[in-house]
Amino acid sequence: MGKGIAITGMGVISAIGNNVEENYESLISKKIGISKITHIDTVHKNDIMVGEISTTNEALEAQLGLSPNSWSRTSLLAVIAAKEAVNHAGITDLNAFKTGLISGTTVGGMDKSEQYFYEYFENNKAWHHINGLHAGDSTKKIAIALGLESSFTTTISTACSSAANAIMLGARMIKSGQLDRVIVGGADCLSKFTINGFKTLMILSDTYNTPFDDHRKGLNLGESAAYLVLESDEVVAKENKKVLAYVKGYGNANDAFHQTASSDNGDGAVLAMEQALKVAGLSPKAVDYVNAHGTATPNNDLSEGRAMNRVFDGRVPDFSSTKAFTGHTLATAGAIEAVYAVLALQNNVIFPNLNFKTPMQEFDLLPETELKQKELNVVLSNSFGFGGNCTALIFSKEA
Amino acid sequence: MKKRVYINSVGSVSAQKTFENDAFLTEITTHNDTTMSVINPNYKDYIPPAAARRMAKGIKMSTVSSKTALEEAGLDNVDAIIVGTGLGCIGDSEKFISAIIDNKEQFLTPTRFIQSSHNTVSGQIALGIGCKGYNYTYVNGATSFESCLIDAMIQLQLEEAQNVLVGGVDELVAHHVDTHRLIDHIKKTPVESTQLLASKTEGCVMAEGAQFFVLSNEKQASTYGELLAVGTYNSLEKAQLTGTVSKFLAENQLSVDAIDLVILGYNGDVTFDSYYDLLANELFSNTAQAYSKHLSGEYDTASSFAFWLASKVMRTNSLPEVVHLNKVAVPTPKTILLYNQYRGEYHSLVLLRQC
């Protein structure tokens, strides 16, 4: 049986809370974070709903001791969540062990790039944002904010599976002995770029997203950052660390079907879930709960539902998508849902799939729509993205 | 016992004529500018024209060099595809942003948006060859390509994969160049490639390119050499550099004397080339030295061109005079060390050996 990698800290900021505790409170009290957009002046503001973090950039900057308009919102969110994770893990000297940082992002500093795209050539007021377009820039800012030096840091951009892949790489690097400890996760803010991009693909809902519902109209974009601290058994033993849960399995595959759509039968998703189970050394029956990708687009939920039916041979365990709470936070989805998977394991609770009314015609899958207390030992979390990227992660209570 | 990792093939589209594997820098293109575009292969030979029309340049360059690499390795498919890119197909990102602004968020079409996703190259290659295996894209500035190497090594050493396609790709795009000129990251006046290191001015000569390689844990006739180790460091003070290099070598049971050739990432930026000077003048003053960015230009994944150069050197047992930096003759280029950094950050060390 595959040995799990210990999770010892978590941090998150999303539309349903600025830290882990607030997120948990919202999840168990059905408090959703979907609203009209307020921070971005877009012509689509009356046609879309988003999972926006209500805190302004100015307030986030004040919290971090930065002057106004210092960073991209992605970096602000990233540093806040990463600091919470490191503090939560009780780490005082980050460089005491061979520590790495792996972050996922898709938009990086696009919010500032699109704002100053032409203005850069008129005055020098925003030139400090020019380098922020590099996706690695937010990762660099996290490393500096945490004081991580001379270390392995990298950034992954595999669309909406980015942070899930960051978690997978982190676990693999600890398993292979390359790192003793690694901070993994991702960050993405809302931007006109993504709002308009998804708008052209016609997969944005004009109302609250309804995962796995027959009448689903598409996704709500969201923004968030979430990080987890993974540590080797040696560090856990030496530091007498409290382990929150384990990364037990992981699988990555490519659907190789279409640049932006999932295949009808979810081949890539099936491969990723099967591989994650294999790495974990678990049979499908061992899975107590699936936190689905469940974006509420017609294509994803059908493809994912079919994939689950295949992997679990028609006996799909309790499942739900939490995107009705947070919106689809793109690169970060895999990390925020990893935090939710750990919270589910810690509290033996399945979070509801909100806004579900009508079962899909294509199969008889029914998500959990109410908060459900249940002894949980193994949780599977899916994340799929453009480019055919499919990732499945398995979290467990026991190593 | 960990499996060894071999470089079984190469493919390159660069500012030199490198897209055909039988030549090795026999024909040098001298650039005299502040930017360098690639020497384009005839894309029609590799991509159906209808498909090529809508393709971002990054995808086109990557298609050619990945096809070249797969063909040389004698493979139709691989177990994993891992791509490094600083900015992805940024030309499409910029076109999409300007369209958003110019058209006030109306009348937009999805193609630009889709291609601007950083993982579009790795996704397109997977689609092209029908590879359902592991698929990753690293986007971490100047260590994007080295992140791919680290990931591939873990998979090959632990036998999670037998053949992995890794690559580095970046495009040269007007808006990106223009903004980086504003902040002096690009040279203000043209530099003739042979005079790059003598320019003593700030900034680099920005360029583009795509290098792909098949890494494998099985040696074959086409093998160029062995990849021994890769290290990346997000930050390094100058005072830490030689110590870090010595420690990296020691971890691989090597001394400075064991290195036959060091390839340094000199890009002609007077402010940051001093990092390379530290190794050139101190640790490796008696070692043969080479550089490559006067040929390839600088970009986030330009270190993949140095990796290509090292592979060719190992394969041909020769060091072209055009890349030779000092007067120390190369014995047999048995063991090669690559060091790269960008603007004092994103440091990497790559260790290779003939086999």
Any overview of this molecule?
With 399 residues, chain A is α/β, with parallel strands linked by helices. In chain A, 32% of the residues lie in helices and 19% in strands. Chain A has two domains: 234 residues, Thiolase/Chalcone synthase (Peroxisomal Thiolase, Chain A, domain 1, 3-Layer(aba) Sandwich); 148 residues, Thiolase/Chalcone synthase (Peroxisomal Thiolase, Chain A, domain 1, 3-Layer(aba) Sandwich). In chain A, the strands form three sheets. A ten-stranded mixed sheet of chain A has the order 5-4-6-8-1-9-15-14-10-11, sandwiched between helices. Chain A has a three-stranded mixed sheet with strand order 2-3-7. In chain A, helix 9 packs across helix 10. The longest helix of chain A has 16 residues. Chain A is globular and about 60 Å long. In chain A, 65% of the residues are buried. With 355 residues, chain B is an alpha/beta fold. Chain B has two domains: 211 residues, Peroxisomal Thiolase, Chain A, domain 1; 129 residues, Peroxisomal Thiolase, Chain A, domain 1, CATH 3.40.47. Helices cover 33% and strands 21% of the residues of chain B. In chain B, the strands form two sheets. In chain B, strands 4-3-5-7-1-8-12-11-9-10 form a ten-stranded mixed sheet, sandwiched between helices. In chain B, strands 2-6 form a two-stranded antiparallel sheet. The longest helix of chain B has 17 residues. In chain B, 58% of the residues are buried. At the A-B interface, helix 4, helix 5, strand 5, helix 6 and helix 7 of A face helix 3, helix 4, helix 5, strand 4 and helix 6 of B.
